[in-house]
Amino acid sequence: MKILKGVLSWFGTVLISVVVALFIIIFLFQPTSVSGSSMENTLHDRNKIIINKTRNIFHGEPDYEDIVIIDSRVDRKRTFWDNVIEPLKYNVFVTKFTGNVDEIFWVKRVIGKAGDVLEFKNGKVIRNGVELEENYIKEPMLYESTDKVIVPEKSVFVMGDNRNNSSDSRYIGCIPLDHVIGTYLFKIGF
């Protein structure tokens, strides 16, 4: 009987630990990795990072220059189950063993928020008539456009720091806030 109580106690502890870990990964903090060179020189291919997902719980909006993780599938609505299943399927621990390559989640920087007017001239980003000072970009941007982008309500405009090698809002459009999965916290080394 004493052995059975010990086994049940151990099993209960493991079960509670697993539930707490899943709750943290799904709703609070998630380990993930950077794929590609679009955020160089700030982040590099295969960097392991932790993202903060608490803004999503409180429906917060990222700030200018925040590094965010987005769901690039902007043409489809995200569901509650996307928020539950995808962190389990695409995180740094699972992909290490399964080899799943996460190509739907992109790491980018917030350049524009709702109501902002963005222009791209002379290798610079101009937000609301003011040229941005962006000391984090890898090299001067070659992209130019005569079009002005007005960021819609409940959306952000994101770009990679490696502007000349980045798929971002210039190509897929503005990102609905519910497609902003989390905000970059820090790099981890393993």
What tags apply to this protein structure?
190 residues; alpha+beta; Umud Fragment, subunit A; seven-stranded antiparallel beta sheet; four-stranded antiparallel beta sheet; protease; LexA/Signal_pep-like_sf; signal peptidase activity; Peptidase_S26
What does this structure look like?
The protein has a single domain, classed as Umud Fragment, subunit A. Helix content is 27%, strand content 30%. It is built from five helices and eleven strands; from the N terminus they run H-E-E-H-E-H-H-E-E-E-E-E-E-H-E-E. The chain has a seven-stranded antiparallel β-sheet with strand order 1-2-11-3-4-9-10. A hairpin with a 2-residue loop joins strand 6 and strand 7. Helix 1 crosses helix 3. The protein is elongated, with a radius of gyration of 19 Å.
Helices and strands in order, then pairings?
Layout: H1 2-28, E1 29-33, E2 48-52, H2 54-57, E3 67-71, H3 80-89, H4 92-98, E4 105-113, E5 117-121, E6 124-127, E7 130-131, E8 145-150, E9 155-159, H5 169-172, E10 175-176, E11 180-188
Antiparallel strand pairs: 1-2, 2-11, 3-4, 3-11, 4-9, 5-6, 5-8, 6-7, 9-10
